[in-house]
Amino acid sequence: MIKELEEYSKYKKSDIQWIKMIPYHWDVVKLKYLLKDIRTGSTPSSNKQEYFEGTIKWYTPGDFLGTKMLESSSRTLNDLAIYDGEAKLFPGESVLLVGIGATLGKVGMLKEEASFNQQITGLLVNEALLNPNFLYYWLRINKKTILEIANYTTLPIINNEFINNFDTIAPPICEQNIITKYLDSKTTQINYLIAVKERLIELLKEKRQAVITETVTKGLDSNVKMKDSGIEWIGEIPEHWETTKIKYTTYVKGRIGWQGLRSDEFIDVGPHLVTGTDFQEGNVNWSTCYRISEERYEEAPEIQLKNEDLLITKDGTIGKTAIVKNKPQKAILNSGVFVTRPYKEEYLTEYLYWVLNSSIFIDYIDIMSSGTTVRHLYQETFKNFIYPLPNLPEQKRISELISNQTSHLNDVINQTKIQISKLKEYRESLIYEAVTGKIDVRDYAPDKQEVY
Q1: Quick one: 300 exposed, middle or buried, by C-beta within 10 A (0-12, 13-18, 19+)?
Q2: Does residue 324 register a pLDDT over 50?
Q3: Domain containing 275: what range?
């Protein structure tokens, strides 16, 4: 645990509304008085591909991954791009701030000399007055303020004049150094704990996947005689099981195009329009669905939904599934989803749900895509999916077992996610408390038992 720290003995008004009070001996200064240089990056001409054939890291907002140090970029430049004035270099420990676009306010630090595009502003501090690490933490806790002040119509944007005149807390430089050491130590500790829990979630998800796949392909009796299914993505199955294709057992329909439906037609009441983003833990979250008119609903009776329908996404993140339960009076599909229901009572909806959540369906899609990145599940491809089919009583027992085991695993996953969320909240709170002087870290000494 991190020990509680005392407040400073004396405070004064800060003139920064959302902070209010700061330690008495701290100052608030315009950022421009603490900088040596401030520059916006650039993108070299795409007419000369050779500019991008080098080892100089060239950062874009997509390279800001939430870590403090920027260490790897998706693209690189060569010396010619710098020599021709197509790009600029900033030294290591420069602070980079995303100044335009959807990720405005993201901040990072260069580990080594590098360049960046025009969406990013580079800040080079006067190290006699401002520790670059302190500036990083200061800008990090100001992201919400930056977003609120940004001027934009379609995209949020802040210019260099705004950054120059941004009010910045400035403790004495020796105190900044102590604060940044404290925060580096504590955030490293917290990041380690977060990484451990994120790895636990990965392992639990792998375990869940293994339980589903093992059960829908091998059944419940470990002593049963097996046979080769003859299907590449299935392997061996119990001898008394059969295999079948979706098209032989299942009604499959999807919306063909939008039929002229526009987003400005969405209304507050009316039939629900289900999209893949409304899928939540195997169910449809009816509260997030768009609503459409009765006329639009009646245009496509073949995709009007019934309780116990099984839905599967065919665009974007393909293969997400949900079973329709507690359906409002009327509901229909968006264009990115298939509705399925059994022709006859050959299978239970819950059983097919687990089959489609198993590795055999993922493997089938990979085989059918021939290694390419699939962004669409074609209806014909889906209908030709071959899957194992035990008898109905066995399907019921399989579904119940998987449901019970995955429910426990999901509970642990969700609890772990809550713990991660709390750790992240604590980390940001700790940064805020230290950088704004709500806690006094001047006597901080690392605990030998701290985890890194």
Answers
A1: middle
A2: yes
A3: 220-389
